[in-house]
Amino acid sequence: MMTSVRAAILMGCWLISAASVFAASDSPRKVIIDTDPGADDAMAILLALNSPELDVKALTVVAGNVVIEQGVENALKLVSLAGRCDIPIAGGAHQPLAQKLITAEYFHGKNGLGDVELPSPACHADTRFAPDLTIELIHRYPHDITLVPIGPLTNIALALAKDPSIVPLVKEVVLMGGSISGGNATAAAEANIYNDPEAARAIFAAGWPLTMVGLNVTERTLFTDADLNELAKTHGRENNCAVGVLKFMVNLAGKLGGAGAAMHDPLAVGAAIDRSLIATEDMRVEIETRGEFTRGETVASRHNSSDLKVLHGERYIIEGVEAVRPNAHVAVKSDARRFVQLFISRIAGK
Ligand code: BDR
Ligand code: CA
Fold first, then answer.
1. Is residue 24 domain-resident?
2. Residue 182, CA distances (Å) to 110, 122, 186, 223 in order
């Protein structure tokens, strides 16, 4: 009852919220995008680079969808295409904290960009290690940096382990990962969390404001054939790149029985641009690291309470319920059509 009342109130807020309307006088939100580009990562990056609400301070690259070298090259090609060599691109972790790397060329194309061939990059990689750059920027802009991780959370976990003092200095974390409705990498786990559960556990336990944009909303935020046709009417280097990558994504989704391509990573960037594109509920989210079938699952307490069990001799007796403290704003709904229209409007003609 409580949950549904709160959900209704939150949904009301989502529909009427004016807080995220960006005025020219507002200063853009400083973001670091931690990414494993990746077809949908590429779309998220182009969206961010073309959104005045965001000031992209760095793209930090992590191994995930592709190996780190390919990821860095892809990020460099994308910023080059956008004429943004001012944005540092730093490579980070080559592999997850405690397991072998799993790459996903099957879903992202041999080069990670849906087999779209972009010109050789004009921009050069930053020599700093991605987690070190993240730490440096958080200290340079205290309370002002929003982290937007859209890949496995290895780089952010390394930054956190090296310098835990960043936690209170980060404005917030808005990540693509997890799910409260089953997984995609496995029945239980979403790919970004599954690809480094130990890192994810550290990020969710850190205590910073964290928004989880998971599969339960991204799989309902689809880019369709009709959207592709709309974007294909306009032209420009980034526009054409986006059409090529999205064509790959939409075709693949069609082959796998979907009605469109899930805008996983772009929606997380969308939430950083305009919070009213998602509705959230506060939940306690734990990361399963040991389950035989559930490693990498984001286990969310929707009621934020659990049974209070007290040992009496040979058995436990439930004597009440105890509150569990929420650690995440979990996206439960997205305004999918408004988001896709925002995406198209930002990329069209660029
Ligand atoms: C996530 O996994 C990756 O393959 C995508 O880029 C996205 O970040 C979706 O589960
Ligand atoms: Ca990604």
1. no
2. 27, 41, 8, 21
Please tell me the predicted confidence (pLDDT) of residue 24.
62
Based on the structure, what is the number of domains in the chain?
A: 1
Token pair, residue 268, equals: 């997380």
Asked if residue 343 belongs to a domain, the reply is: yes
What is the Cα–Cα distance from 323 to 305, expressed in whole angstroms?
A: 4
**Structure pTM?**
0.93
Task: Give ligand 1 pocket residues (Cβ under 6 A).
Answer: 38, 40-41, 65, 104, 107, 150-151, 176, 184, 190-192, 264-265
Q: In testing the pocket of ligand 1, which one of 33, 34, 41 has its CB within 8 Å of the most ligand atoms? A: 41
High-pLDDT (> 90) share of the chain, %: 92
Give 203-223 pLDDT, tens digit per residue: 999 999 999 999 999 999 999
| pLDDT for the residue numbered 25 | 65
Domain that includes residue 139, residue range: 4-19+29-347
Does residue 49 form part of some domain?
yes
- The rounded distance, in Å, linking the Cα atoms of 96 and 99 is 6
Instruction: Give the number of the atom of ligand 1 that is nearest the alpha carbon of residue 39.
Output: 6
